[in-house]
Amino acid sequence: MSLAPAPDYASGSLADVMPSVAAALGVPGLDNSLGIEPSDRAVVLLIDGLGSELLQGAADIAPTLMSLQSRRLSSVFPSTTPAGLGSLGTGSTPGVHGLVGASFLLPETGKVLHPLSWVDDPNPIAVQPEPTVFELASAHGLAVRAVSPSAYANSGLTRAVLRGAEYRGADTVDARVHETALAVVDRHSLAYVYWGELDKCGHVHGVASERWREELINVDAFVEQLLGRLPKDCRVVLTADHGMVDVSVDSRVDLDALPVLWDSVMHLAGEPRARHIYVRVGAEAEVLAAWRETLGDRAWVMSRSEAERLFGDMDDMLVDRVGDVVAVARDGWSLVSDRTDSFVSALIGQHGGLSLQELAIPLLTR
Hints:
- There is one protein chain.
- The chain is built from 15 helices and 17 strands.
- The protein has helices spanning 17-24, 52-57, 63-66, 81-90, 94-97, 124-127, 133-139, 156-161, 173-183, 197-205, 210-229, 284-295, 304-307, 338-345, 356-359; strands at residues 41-47, 69-74, 104-106, 111-113, 143-148, 166-169, 189-195, 235-239, 245-246, 252-254, 265-271, 274-279, 299-303, 325-329, 334-336, 349-350, 360-365.
- A 7-stranded mixed β-sheet has the order 2-17-8-1-7-5-6, sandwiched between helices. Strands 11-12-14-13 form a 4-stranded antiparallel β-sheet. A two-stranded antiparallel ribbon has the order 3-4.
- The protein is globular, with a radius of gyration of 20 Å.
- The relative contact order is 0.21.
- The mean pLDDT is 97.
């Protein structure tokens, strides 16, 4: 089996964005490894699903985005929103903040946690106790705000990764522009802004669709409008949590139709491009062998110890959140299971894996 590629945490990743911005704002104890120019106020804008490869392929319809200073960063593994937002918010890798997938087992509860639908149980601070960059910035005296849809204000994921920021609900383009401009009125301020529509469009219609291009035009128009409203001395940093690939119906591996894969499996989690497999104690080797033999070159199938490097620095107290076996879809494949996550398995656009299209993300600055 060939060695799976890994995120390039050393050369600049999503985990470096918020610490670099906060350090440029004067927050002590943080490393400005990305060389963000110093300023008194800054806006960090995250466009969910905007991979570098996708942006470059649609450069003709995104003139505002293409006008910004640009470099590439790496997303984290899995290349998915809970892991990515955890790394953005805490400045640490998934192995440290512990949000290791779109869903994953919490050994202390014996239940699979789905961060995108998480509310109160289990306690967000217990699941993710690392201090956030927003908390550090607020403690240093910055006015720190998060501008995002109202529906996410009290979610478990918000409280796990955005705590320390005053939450400003904004559900329309005009509201997001207005709230962001207000968020940096103070001379010493940091604002985080989230845009999720592009990711949703890619999942449903595919990133090769005309609908996706139309949504990218909307993103570009939003950024143009936002730049026009922000003070000239406000640093603007735009990035993404991951990219995306389209998966054809013929490239979906139906795990439910392969009984040999389920022997001794207690829980299946993750998502179709990156699966956590939790197994009966003592059955790790046989499950690993069955998944490797059955999936062949359609996936990288790894033991937990082999997969640890993908999550960056790994906290020994959190390693059991990673599957006993980890299967990452290769090329254009996906590992679907209706009985595990029928809605997600049916989507055209997928992410979570280790392809360049999923891992490469932009860092755009003004």
